[in-house]
């Protein structure tokens, strides 16, 4: 009985003294699921969580272009940026390449919307939207901390 008590006390001490798990850097869509009628446009926000010292980002957003279509020229600055931003977009087959960053010095830390995109729903069907080739950098050109373990949360689109 004494042995069980001692083991229980050791487990309790380790459980109460251990530091909390760090919050992981996360990139996600503003909604995990979008439902839209065919021939209607809809906006998709890109949200970052638990980031430190973000100066610029680049990524590819992939999708099935037979179901939804990115509307060129519809890349909008997100609410997290506190200054003038540079925006670049290039539409390719089944994806759009995006680059957004601050024009001058500064950075963003915490959680916020990086940018929004507008898509047009084409055909009643279901498809995913995903992140690929994500780069998040600090003002000095180095990757932000946590990029090697970033959580990428895909979205889902239902066209009715």
Brief summary:
With 160 residues, the chain is mainly beta. The protein has 1 helix and 12 strands.
Taken as a percent bin, the fraction of beta residues is: over 45%
Q: Secondary-structure element order, as H and E?
A: HEEEEEEEEEEEE
Report the average pLDDT across residues: 90
Strand segment tally: 12
Q: Strand pairing plus helix content: what structural class?
A: mainly beta
Radius of gyration: 20 Å
Report on the architecture of this protein:
Helices cover 10% and strands 53% of the residues. It has one helix at 2-17, and strands at 26-29, 33-36, 41-54, 56-62, 68-70, 76-77, 85-92, 95-102, 108-121, 125-137, 151-153, 155-159. The strands form 2 sheets. Strands 1, 3, 5, 6, 9 and 11 form a 6-stranded mixed sheet that branches. The protein is globular and about 45 Å long. Mean pLDDT is 90; it is low at 5-20.
Features:
single chain, 160 residues, mainly beta, 6-stranded mixed beta sheet, 10% helix
Give the secondary structure arrangement, pairings included:
Elements: H1 2-17, E1 26-29, E2 33-36, E3 41-54, E4 56-62, E5 68-70, E6 76-77, E7 85-92, E8 95-102, E9 108-121, E10 125-137, E11 151-153, E12 155-159
């Amino acid at each position: 009985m004494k042995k069980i008590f001692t083991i229980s006390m050791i487990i309790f001490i380790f459980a109460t003294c251990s530091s909390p798990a760090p919050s992981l850097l996360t990139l996600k869509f503003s909604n995990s699921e979008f439902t839209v009628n065919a021939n209607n446009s809809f906006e998709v926000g890109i949200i970052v969580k638990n980031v430190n010292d973000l100066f610029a980002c680049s990524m590819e957003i992939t999708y099935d272009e037979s179901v939804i279509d990115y509307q060129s020229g519809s890349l909008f600055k997100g609410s997290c940026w506190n200054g003038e931003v540079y925006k670049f977009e290039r539409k390719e087959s089944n994806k759009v390449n995006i680059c957004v960053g601050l024009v001058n010095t500064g950075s963003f830390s915490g959680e916020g919307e990086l940018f929004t995109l507008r898509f047009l729903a084409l055909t009643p069907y279901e498809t995913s939207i995903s992140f690929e080739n994500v780069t998040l950098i600090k003002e000095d050109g180095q990757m932000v901390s946590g990029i090697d373990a970033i959580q990428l949360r895909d979205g889902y689109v239902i066209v009715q």
